[in-house]
Design goal:
homodimer; 118 residues; mainly beta; Ubiquitin-like (UB roll); two-stranded antiparallel sheet; 1 helix; 8 strands; 8% helix; 38% strand
Chain lengths: 118, 118
Protein backbone atom coordinates (compact mmCIF):
# COMPACT_ATOMS: atom_id res chain seq x y z
CA UNK A 1 0.00 0.00 0.00
CA UNK A 2 1.46 3.36 -1.01
CA UNK A 3 1.34 6.00 1.71
CA UNK A 4 2.36 9.55 0.68
CA UNK A 5 3.56 10.14 4.23
CA UNK A 6 6.44 7.72 3.63
CA UNK A 7 8.04 10.04 1.08
CA UNK A 8 10.87 12.36 2.03
CA UNK A 9 9.82 15.99 2.00
CA UNK A 10 11.93 19.10 2.42
CA UNK A 11 11.76 21.46 5.41
CA UNK A 12 8.57 22.96 3.96
CA UNK A 13 6.89 19.59 3.54
CA UNK A 14 7.35 19.64 -0.24
CA UNK A 15 8.70 17.20 -2.82
CA UNK A 16 9.66 18.05 -6.40
CA UNK A 17 7.48 16.51 -9.10
CA UNK A 18 8.56 16.22 -12.74
CA UNK A 19 5.75 16.02 -15.29
CA UNK A 20 6.55 13.99 -18.40
CA UNK A 21 4.23 13.46 -21.34
CA UNK A 22 3.55 9.74 -21.19
CA UNK A 23 3.29 9.12 -24.91
CA UNK A 24 6.36 11.06 -26.06
CA UNK A 25 8.74 11.35 -23.10
CA UNK A 26 8.76 15.15 -23.34
CA UNK A 27 9.59 16.74 -19.99
CA UNK A 28 6.92 19.38 -19.54
CA UNK A 29 7.62 21.08 -16.21
CA UNK A 30 8.72 20.67 -12.64
CA UNK A 31 6.64 21.84 -9.69
CA UNK A 32 6.09 20.93 -6.06
CA UNK A 33 3.69 18.71 -4.16
CA UNK A 34 2.93 18.07 -0.52
CA UNK A 35 1.38 14.91 0.91
CA UNK A 36 -2.15 16.27 0.58
CA UNK A 37 -1.69 17.29 -3.05
CA UNK A 38 -0.34 13.81 -3.83
CA UNK A 39 -3.45 12.30 -2.27
CA UNK A 40 -5.66 14.64 -4.30
CA UNK A 41 -3.79 13.77 -7.48
CA UNK A 42 -4.12 10.03 -6.93
CA UNK A 43 -7.78 10.31 -5.95
CA UNK A 44 -8.85 12.58 -8.81
CA UNK A 45 -6.47 11.53 -11.57
CA UNK A 46 -5.81 15.21 -12.25
CA UNK A 47 -2.38 16.51 -11.28
CA UNK A 48 -2.61 18.88 -8.32
CA UNK A 49 0.52 20.68 -7.19
CA UNK A 50 1.13 22.89 -4.18
CA UNK A 51 1.68 26.51 -5.13
CA UNK A 52 4.57 27.89 -3.08
CA UNK A 53 3.78 31.48 -4.07
CA UNK A 54 0.06 31.30 -3.31
CA UNK A 55 0.32 28.65 -0.56
CA UNK A 56 -2.63 26.73 -1.93
CA UNK A 57 -3.50 23.69 -4.02
CA UNK A 58 -2.94 24.21 -7.69
CA UNK A 59 -4.93 21.83 -9.84
CA UNK A 60 -3.15 22.14 -13.13
CA UNK A 61 -5.51 23.50 -15.77
CA UNK A 62 -8.43 24.13 -13.40
CA UNK A 63 -8.64 27.72 -14.65
CA UNK A 64 -6.78 27.53 -17.98
CA UNK A 65 -8.31 24.28 -19.15
CA UNK A 66 -4.84 22.91 -19.83
CA UNK A 67 -5.24 19.90 -17.58
CA UNK A 68 -2.71 17.25 -16.74
CA UNK A 69 -4.32 13.84 -16.49
CA UNK A 70 -2.26 11.45 -14.42
CA UNK A 71 -1.23 8.28 -16.21
CA UNK A 72 1.16 6.98 -13.55
CA UNK A 73 3.05 8.29 -10.53
CA UNK A 74 6.58 7.05 -9.95
CA UNK A 75 9.01 7.60 -7.05
CA UNK A 76 12.77 7.71 -7.16
CA UNK A 77 15.19 5.52 -5.21
CA UNK A 78 15.58 8.07 -2.41
CA UNK A 79 11.81 8.67 -2.21
CA UNK A 80 12.47 12.41 -2.48
CA UNK A 81 11.38 13.08 -6.07
CA UNK A 82 8.33 12.16 -8.14
CA UNK A 83 8.05 11.49 -11.85
CA UNK A 84 4.51 11.98 -13.13
CA UNK A 85 3.55 10.34 -16.39
CA UNK A 86 0.78 12.58 -17.72
CA UNK A 87 -1.40 13.47 -20.64
CA UNK A 88 -1.14 17.24 -21.02
CA UNK A 89 -3.86 19.23 -22.78
CA UNK A 90 -2.39 22.20 -24.64
CA UNK A 91 0.57 24.10 -23.23
CA UNK A 92 2.02 23.08 -19.86
CA UNK A 93 3.91 26.36 -19.50
CA UNK A 94 2.27 29.59 -18.37
CA UNK A 95 4.03 31.31 -21.30
CA UNK A 96 1.87 29.29 -23.68
CA UNK A 97 4.67 26.98 -24.70
CA UNK A 98 4.24 23.26 -24.71
CA UNK A 99 6.91 22.85 -22.00
CA UNK A 100 8.80 25.14 -19.65
CA UNK A 101 12.32 24.23 -20.79
CA UNK A 102 12.41 26.38 -23.92
CA UNK A 103 15.72 28.09 -23.15
CA UNK A 104 18.88 26.23 -24.08
CA UNK A 105 22.48 27.14 -23.34
CA UNK A 106 24.39 26.89 -26.60
CA UNK A 107 27.97 28.10 -27.06
CA UNK A 108 27.60 30.02 -23.83
CA UNK A 109 24.48 31.90 -24.87
CA UNK A 110 20.80 31.50 -24.02
CA UNK A 111 18.80 30.43 -27.05
CA UNK A 112 15.00 30.23 -27.27
CA UNK A 113 14.22 26.83 -28.77
CA UNK A 114 10.41 26.83 -28.67
CA UNK A 115 7.66 29.34 -29.38
CA UNK A 116 4.25 29.63 -27.74
CA UNK A 117 1.61 27.33 -29.19
CA UNK A 118 -0.99 29.14 -31.26
CA UNK B 1 25.82 35.31 -22.58
CA UNK B 2 24.57 32.78 -20.03
CA UNK B 3 25.56 33.54 -16.44
CA UNK B 4 24.75 30.82 -13.86
CA UNK B 5 24.41 33.56 -11.24
CA UNK B 6 21.21 34.75 -12.94
CA UNK B 7 19.38 31.53 -12.05
CA UNK B 8 17.08 31.34 -9.04
CA UNK B 9 18.52 29.19 -6.28
CA UNK B 10 16.90 28.03 -3.05
CA UNK B 11 17.95 29.16 0.42
CA UNK B 12 20.92 26.77 0.23
CA UNK B 13 22.08 28.11 -3.12
CA UNK B 14 20.84 25.02 -4.98
CA UNK B 15 18.73 24.41 -8.06
CA UNK B 16 17.13 21.08 -9.06
CA UNK B 17 18.50 19.48 -12.21
CA UNK B 18 16.66 16.77 -14.15
CA UNK B 19 18.83 14.46 -16.25
CA UNK B 20 17.18 13.12 -19.39
CA UNK B 21 18.75 10.73 -21.88
CA UNK B 22 19.02 12.86 -24.99
CA UNK B 23 18.42 10.11 -27.52
CA UNK B 24 15.42 8.42 -25.89
CA UNK B 25 13.76 10.97 -23.58
CA UNK B 26 14.13 8.65 -20.58
CA UNK B 27 14.20 10.63 -17.34
CA UNK B 28 17.19 9.22 -15.48
CA UNK B 29 17.39 11.09 -12.18
CA UNK B 30 17.04 14.39 -10.39
CA UNK B 31 19.81 15.93 -8.32
CA UNK B 32 20.99 19.36 -7.25
CA UNK B 33 23.48 21.90 -8.58
CA UNK B 34 24.92 25.16 -7.35
CA UNK B 35 26.36 27.92 -9.52
CA UNK B 36 29.87 26.48 -9.31
CA UNK B 37 28.77 22.98 -10.30
CA UNK B 38 26.90 24.43 -13.28
CA UNK B 39 30.08 26.20 -14.35
CA UNK B 40 32.07 22.99 -13.97
CA UNK B 41 29.49 21.06 -15.98
CA UNK B 42 29.51 23.56 -18.83
CA UNK B 43 33.29 23.80 -18.85
CA UNK B 44 34.00 20.06 -18.72
CA UNK B 45 30.97 18.64 -20.54
CA UNK B 46 30.60 16.10 -17.73
CA UNK B 47 27.63 16.57 -15.44
CA UNK B 48 28.74 17.67 -11.97
CA UNK B 49 26.14 17.93 -9.22
CA UNK B 50 26.43 19.25 -5.69
CA UNK B 51 26.11 16.50 -3.10
CA UNK B 52 23.90 17.75 -0.26
CA UNK B 53 24.87 14.86 2.01
CA UNK B 54 28.62 15.16 1.46
CA UNK B 55 28.64 18.93 0.80
CA UNK B 56 31.00 18.55 -2.13
CA UNK B 57 31.06 18.43 -5.92
CA UNK B 58 29.81 15.16 -7.31
CA UNK B 59 31.03 14.50 -10.82
CA UNK B 60 28.63 11.83 -11.93
CA UNK B 61 30.52 8.62 -12.70
CA UNK B 62 33.92 9.90 -11.54
CA UNK B 63 34.29 6.85 -9.30
CA UNK B 64 31.75 4.42 -10.82
CA UNK B 65 32.63 5.11 -14.44
CA UNK B 66 28.95 5.71 -15.20
CA UNK B 67 29.47 9.18 -16.57
CA UNK B 68 26.88 11.63 -17.78
CA UNK B 69 28.13 13.55 -20.78
CA UNK B 70 26.28 16.82 -21.23
CA UNK B 71 24.54 17.23 -24.56
CA UNK B 72 22.64 20.40 -23.72
CA UNK B 73 21.59 22.37 -20.65
CA UNK B 74 18.13 23.95 -20.63
CA UNK B 75 16.44 26.29 -18.14
CA UNK B 76 12.79 26.57 -17.32
CA UNK B 77 10.60 29.67 -17.59
CA UNK B 78 11.11 30.60 -13.93
CA UNK B 79 14.87 30.00 -14.10
CA UNK B 80 14.59 27.78 -11.04
CA UNK B 81 14.96 24.33 -12.61
CA UNK B 82 17.39 22.80 -15.10
CA UNK B 83 16.81 20.07 -17.67
CA UNK B 84 20.03 18.36 -18.69
CA UNK B 85 20.10 16.48 -21.96
CA UNK B 86 22.77 13.83 -21.39
CA UNK B 87 24.38 10.66 -22.67
CA UNK B 88 24.46 8.28 -19.72
CA UNK B 89 26.96 5.42 -19.57
CA UNK B 90 25.47 2.41 -17.80
CA UNK B 91 23.11 2.85 -14.87
CA UNK B 92 22.29 6.35 -13.64
CA UNK B 93 20.91 5.03 -10.34
CA UNK B 94 23.10 3.97 -7.43
CA UNK B 95 20.98 0.81 -7.20
CA UNK B 96 22.35 -0.28 -10.56
CA UNK B 97 19.16 0.49 -12.41
CA UNK B 98 19.14 2.51 -15.57
CA UNK B 99 17.08 5.26 -13.93
CA UNK B 100 15.99 6.13 -10.40
CA UNK B 101 12.24 6.09 -11.02
CA UNK B 102 11.74 2.33 -10.88
CA UNK B 103 8.87 2.39 -8.37
CA UNK B 104 5.38 3.03 -9.73
CA UNK B 105 2.16 3.53 -7.83
CA UNK B 106 -0.40 1.18 -9.36
CA UNK B 107 -3.84 0.53 -7.85
CA UNK B 108 -2.60 2.10 -4.64
CA UNK B 109 0.45 -0.15 -4.31
CA UNK B 110 4.14 0.36 -4.95
CA UNK B 111 5.33 -1.77 -7.85
CA UNK B 112 8.96 -2.26 -8.94
CA UNK B 113 9.00 -1.70 -12.68
CA UNK B 114 12.73 -2.05 -13.44
CA UNK B 115 15.53 -4.33 -12.32
CA UNK B 116 19.23 -3.55 -11.93
CA UNK B 117 21.22 -3.74 -15.15
CA UNK B 118 23.51 -6.77 -15.29
Amino acid sequence: MFDPKTLRYDANGLIPAIAQEAATGEVLMMAWMNAASIEKTLASGRVTYWSRSRQEFWEKGATSGNQQVLVEMRLDCDRDCLLLQVEQSGPACHTGRRNCFYTAVRQGDEVEIAKPMT
